[in-house]
Design a protein that fits this description.
By secondary structure, this protein is an alpha+beta fold. Helix content is 20%, strand content 30%. Strands 1, 2, 3, 4, 5 and 6 form a six-stranded antiparallel β-sheet that branches. Strand 1 (3-10) and strand 2 (16-19) form a beta hairpin.
Length: 106
């Protein structure tokens, strides 16, 4: 059974965000609420409320795996969305300390 996280873009600034517990949104994947395939319907219903409240746009569930540093998206597209540009390590999330911890670029 695949683990799921809901991702979207924050309407205010376009940042990639993940649904955290209680319907909050976070830029940090490791702080996201992790559910199962069966949970994805209720997770999406909660995300759609944030769309109606104009907090996020285009939410959708993604598959994630537990890696040595925490959660990791299963698909390369989502890895790039989570970390930022692949050619400039001085830009995007890999250049800053978004999660309050230092992480190594993928």
């Amino acid at each position: 059974m695949a683990s799921k996280v809901v991702t979207a873009n924050r309407l205010l600034d376009g940042a990639v965000v993940y649904m955290a517990p209680e319907g909050r949104w976070t830029e940090c994947l490791v702080k996201a609420f992790v559910g199962s395939d069966e949970d994805s319907g209720s997770m999406m219903a909660m995300a759609e409320r944030s769309v109606a409240d104009r907090l996020v746009v285009t939410p959708y569930p993604i598959d994630v795996e537990e890696g040595p540093q925490g959660l990791v998206p299963s698909h390369i597209k989502e890895v790039i969305r989570a970390t930022g540009p692949t050619v400039r390590l001085d830009l995007g999330k890999q250049a800053g300390d978004v999660c309050g911890e230092h992480h190594v670029s993928l």
